[in-house]
């Protein structure tokens, strides 16, 4: 399988038949855009993956009840307000946002999917959203960046990725945008991401491919151990490429799924590197485990360990904290583990094996701990399975950013 990688430059081509827009409506403080739209010229197959938080937001409940499905034309998303824990008013406000977008775009309200992100427990300012609709529709174009910018909250960077493959000898394009910086923890999507493709795919096959991609990429991220009320990944496929319809497993489906996994992996890595206050990306690989599920669980536990993350921020290899986090998870979950069979590498340097520390060049490793990417490799020596988790260090700015952005009495959701 060959997957061509494109960059998020202005010259990169978006999937056929999709347009993107973003404007400032006044939903959040400051002068950054806060209202985004993605629209297809024709009805789409749609799929989704959603937070398992029992206090999920109104837009999450609405979209989850309808996807996978068909006939979707647009995604309307706002930043600065989560529309979560707002009671019956939240559902009414969510429907009003969808209806306003539908009227402005000239599509049925049932063809619009919504998403929100921001402060929890505050009514969605529907009036300012309605007032911004003409400008939002007027901003539509081929460039993904306005929409990517408009869904940011505490993100330092916009996150865009593109891929192209061939299906039945026809070129097919995929594009994705994402946001995520804090309140990032595995168990669904860990943030907002919207993915579009001009492939023709049945709802069941799109859902299957999206679910696989989410599990192998977005679900490997942990920034702070807190799961949002608003997490969602939504995928749209409009078939405008003219490629044959993917309706069953097979080589064409594998190509699509592979491209999705690779593209979502790029977005997931960008989210982990952009964790609130983060100065370093943490990559944890766990091998030598009996099954993939256990390997993933252990990798996430290490990547999410507060002491591990704080030590990395201070430039410490933290190898004792890494092993303590691993041992705690194994003990708490009842996973079998032989301390004498474990090896640990930090930045490619072996620091522990056969139950004891290894001699290493401390000055050389300390110098490497100042790099922006930190790799941790653990081998439990007990099986063929392996998995990766992505995280970041824990800095002073994590608390500062949250206090400044979410100050004012409302509980935060990214």
Which keywords apply here?
414 residues; alpha+beta; six-stranded mixed β-sheet; 11 helices; 16 strands; 28% strand; globular; disordered N terminus; disordered C terminus
**Proportion of helical residues:** 25-40%
Outline type = globular
Average residue-wise pLDDT: 86
Please tell me how large the radius of gyration is: 22 Å
Percentage of residues in DSSP E strands: 25-35%
How can the largest sheet be summarized? 10 strands, mixed
Unreliable residue runs: 1-12, 182-190, 408-414
How many helices? The count is 11
- What pattern of helices and strands is seen along the backbone? EEEHEHEHHEEEHEHEHHHEEEHEEHE
- The first-to-last residue Cα distance is 36 Å
Instruction: Give the strand tally.
Output: 16
Derived structural class: alpha+beta
Q: Would you write up a description of this structure?
A:
- With 414 residues, the protein is α+β, with helices and mostly antiparallel strands.
- Helices cover 33% and strands 28% of the residues.
- The protein has 11 helices and 16 strands.
- Strands 1, 2, 3, 4, 5, 6, 7, 8, 9 and 16 form a 10-stranded mixed β-sheet that branches. Strands 13-12-11-14-10-15 form a 6-stranded mixed β-sheet.
- The two termini are 36 Å apart.
